Amino acid sequence: MKNRYRGFLPLVSAALTLLAAPRVGAAPVVELALLDQKPKLVHMEHPVCPESFRAEGKRGSVRLEVVIDTGGNVIQIAVIDSSDPRLAKPAIEAAAKWTFTPGIKAGEPVNVRMPIFVGFETDEARAEANSKAHFVEPKAIHQEEPEYPFAFIMSRISGVVIVEFTVDRQGDVVRPAIIKSSHPDFEAPAIEAILKWKFRPGMRDGVPVETRLQIPVSFQLRANGYRPAGSEAWAIDSRASTKLPKEFQYDEPPKPLVIGAPVYPYDLLAQKIKGRATVTFEIAPSGRTASIAVASASRPEFGAAAAAMVAAWTFEPAIKDGKPSWAILRREQVFDRDDPSFPVSESALRLLRDLKKTPCPVVTDARLLDAPIKGTYQPSPIVPRSVAEAKVPAEATIEFIVDHAGHAQLPRIVTATNPDFAWAAATAVGRWQFTAPTVKGRPVDVLVSIPMNYEPAAAGQTEAVSAKAAAPTT
User: Fold this and answer.
1) Number of separate domains in the chain
2) How confident is the prediction for the chain on average, in pLDDT?
3) Read out DSSP for 312-342?
4) Between the chain's N and C termini, which has fewer beta carbons within 10 Å?
5) What is residue 442's predicted lDDT score, i.e. its pLDDT?
6) Bond into 146 cis (ω within 30)
């Protein structure tokens, strides 16, 4: 991704939703990177902004992947990402009228696939932009490619992670957050890569200022410049079951935004006990999960872990009659070290072996570290509905290991006043990342204990979940 940042990074390898029928014919389609001469825009049609979107006075964008034929015409369109579902259709309609100079390979025009960006701007947003005329966006001066997870090499799972972060006044990336993630195992490498980026900071009236940005980071195996077909971590049926009540029979299915992995109960993982759990849940028009129920579980712990996993997921809501609607889904989660959808990481398996050794190589005294570890990515737990409705404080202590790469591994519930909150806390901790722990400059693993507390909201206030690192324990 080096030298390709221009305010937005082209998202070139997400799973595509084709919204225009292919008309390429027998002629091969050449990837953009293999061309001798890339297409250049000749004519651009501006999209028609939907009235409902215009009334909100916002900005929006749609990222498309198009196929341009040898005459420079757009003959195939796919939506990669859209900031608002209302913008996809007008973006396609506008892009279909764009024309380009043809792509050239070996002196001949060829069909070429390339990403394009369609922006939407209302009068109010344009006025706001004019008021910021003296603002200069940050510019990336150093970028790191994310590392494709080794566990997915055989399955070729592809995906995208959208990371929101702040570029501080020194041009460093701070406070990253995951906005969208097609698979939890893509989160860590995406965050790690983004944290290594360096920017010229944003400037307002010549003074450096902090700036919040969003960047899509794509994951897909490549071979000889071509992108082999990938698979999605979880495919949702395009049509709802006709046995469901009418209000749950969507026209368009919900789409996963952030899919977190379940916590494999520590004692069962250590004993190599496998299992399954099936959960049913509703997705509200807001995209949040609700009414989660464990339909079956081979062990109670598996059911609790699967329910906490689903509670942390977010979706683009289902669409019915053109509006966000409710949906009911069912998910069977397999708990197996080699489960292809959520495999146990190699680092976690290594730590399980190390914990059996004498002496144990895992550091249990934080005072031995060269410097205290610091959190680089620590999403808060999603407070379960049962906990929120009880309006009673909840506490849990989660023990885990920060491995030598800074990833939280093997979260384990030590104490809990409410089991539902404890599983939510452990699920959140499983996504945490830290600065890498070292002793005398050598990477190490360190045992950490985190007490988490939930305080129900008083009238007019916001619910709070706090977490504080305690002294590492044995």
Assistant:
1) 4
2) 82
3) T-EEEPEEETTEEE-EEEEEEEEE-TT-SSS
4) C
5) 93
6) no
